[in-house]
Amino acid sequence: xxxxxxxxxxxxxxxxxxxxxxxxxxxxxxxxxxxxxxxxxxxxxxxxxxxxxxxxxxxxxxxxxxxxxxxxxxxxxxxxxxxxxxxxxxxxxxxxxxxxxxxxxxxxxxxxxxxxxxxxxxxxxxxxxxxxxxxxxxxxxxxxxxxxxxxxxxxxxxxxxxxxxxxxxxxxxxxxxxxxxxxxxxxxxxxxxxxxxxxxxxxxxxxxxxxxxxxxxxxxxxxxxxxxxxxxxxxxxxxxxxxxxxxxxxxxxxxxxxxxxxxxxxxxxxxxxxxxxxxxxxxxxxxxxxxxxxxxxxxxxxxxxxxxxxxxxxxxxxxxxxxxxxxxxxxxxxxxxxxxxxxxxxxxxxxxxxxxxxxxxxxxxxxxxxxxxxxxxxxxxxxxxxxxxxxxxxxxxxxxxxxxxxxxxxxxxxxxxxxxxxxxxxxxxxxx
Length: 432
Ligand code: GDP
Hints:
Elements: E1 3-8, H1 14-22, E2 40-46, E3 49-55, H2 66-80, E4 83-89, H3 99-107, E5 112-117, H4 122-127, E6 139-141, H5 150-160, E7 176-181, H6 188-195, E8 200-201, E9 216-220, E10 223-227, H7 230-235, H8 237-240, H9 244-257, E11 260-266, H10 273-285, E12 288-294, H11 304-314, E13 322-325, H12 337-348, H13 354-367, E14 380-387, E15 392-397, H14 403-417, E16 425-430
Parallel strand pairs: 1-3, 1-4, 4-5, 5-6, 7-10, 7-11, 11-12, 12-13, 15-16
Antiparallel strand pairs: 2-3, 8-9, 9-10, 14-15
Helix pairs in contact: 2-3, 9-10
The chain binds guanosine-5'-diphosphate.
Pfam families: KH_dom-like (PF14714), MMR_HSR1 (PF01926)
GO molecular function, one term: GTP binding
InterPro entries: AAA+_ATPase, G_ENGA, GTP-bd, GTPase_Der, KH_dom-like, KH_dom-like_a/b, P-loop_NTPase, Small_GTP-bd
C-alpha cells in the first residue's frame, strides 16, 4: 500500500488535513505547537484507491534549531513515503523555518504536493498562487477545516501515487485449491481414497481421447475442495514412471497451483531430506501449510512423547505450520483436516489494519528496542501490510536491522496476530 507523508510546521493544520483525508474527526491528535507527536499512519481511501497517510507529527518541544528539525522531518518523509504533502499556511506563506525543508524537497525525486491550507475563502485562495515561487510546483489551496478544495487535492494525490499493484485479494469464488503432496509411499493415495466417494472431475476428459482431468473436486469435511493434480496421485507418478526429479517437478507444480498444501509425512519413519525439500517448496512458494503425520497407527504410545520432541526439532524453522497426527488406514483424525485447511487459509488472508499494526509495533519497540551496534541503533519508524496470501509486511526503518532482531519482530508479530498455518514475509526499507 502506497504511503503519503504529511510534512509542515506546527499549527499549519496537518492533523486537520489528515482528518480530512481519512474522513474522520476524532483520530488525530491536535496540532498544538510544541507538542511532540509520533509518526502515526492511518488508512485512507479515495475513488477506490487505498493508501496510508502518515502524520509525520511535530518535533521535540524545545528543539533549539527549528529549521533543522523540520528538515529532518521532511527527510524522513522523503525516504519513507511515495508522495509527500508539504503543508503551509496560505495566509502566512512559507517561512524561514521551512527553507531547509523546501530545499530538500525540491532536490528529492519523490513527488511533492504543495498544500496551501486555511484557504477558507476565494481571496486567500488567490493569495496562494504566490506560493509557486517556492519551486515545488502548483500550490493546492485547501481548507482542511471546511473541506474546500480537498477533492482536488485527493485527485492530485492519486495521480502522484505509484501504479496500483494487481489486486489478488478478490479471488474468484469457488472451491479452495489444495495440494496433497509427500514423497512416495507416505499414503497420499490412501488418504485421497478417504475422500474419493464424492470425487468429480473438474475438467471432464474429452470423449475419445486419453486426456486426464488434472484436478478434481473432492468433499473434505462436508466442503468441496479443488484437489490439484489428482491425476498425478492416481497414477503414482513418483513410483511408477519415474525419477525423483520428475516427481519433484510435479510436486512443485501442484504446490504452485494450490493455495494451501497438505504435506504428508510417514510417522513410522524419521523426517527425511526429501520431506524437508517438499516443506521448503511450500514455504518458498508462500503457500499455507498443513503437515499431516500419516500412519500414526504405527506409532507406539510410549514413543510418542519422544517423537514429538524430535519432530519439534526437525521442524523448528516452521513452528507455525499446523500439524495433524492421522491415519489414512484407520480414519483417525481425518475429520480434523478440513478445519486445519480452513484455519491455515484464514491466516494466509489475514489483513491487519495499519493503525492496529503500528499501535502494536510502537509498544514492541518501546519495550524492546533494537540493540545498539557501534554506538547506534536503527529505529523502526512504522510498518504497513503490503499484501495478503501470504501476509507481507514492510518495515520502514532508519537503517538495516539485525537478522536476529528481525526474527524477533516476526515472532512477536505471530504471537500477536496468529498466522497459524501461514508463512509471513517481512521486508525492511531502510532510509538511505
Ligand atoms: P502414496 O505413494 O503416497 O500414494 O502412498 P500409498 O497411499 O500408496 O500408501 C503406501 C503404503 O502405505 C500402502 O501400503 C498403504 O496401505 C500404507 N498406508 C497408507 N496410509 C497408512 C496408514 O495410515 N497407516 C498404515 N499403517 N499404513 C498406511
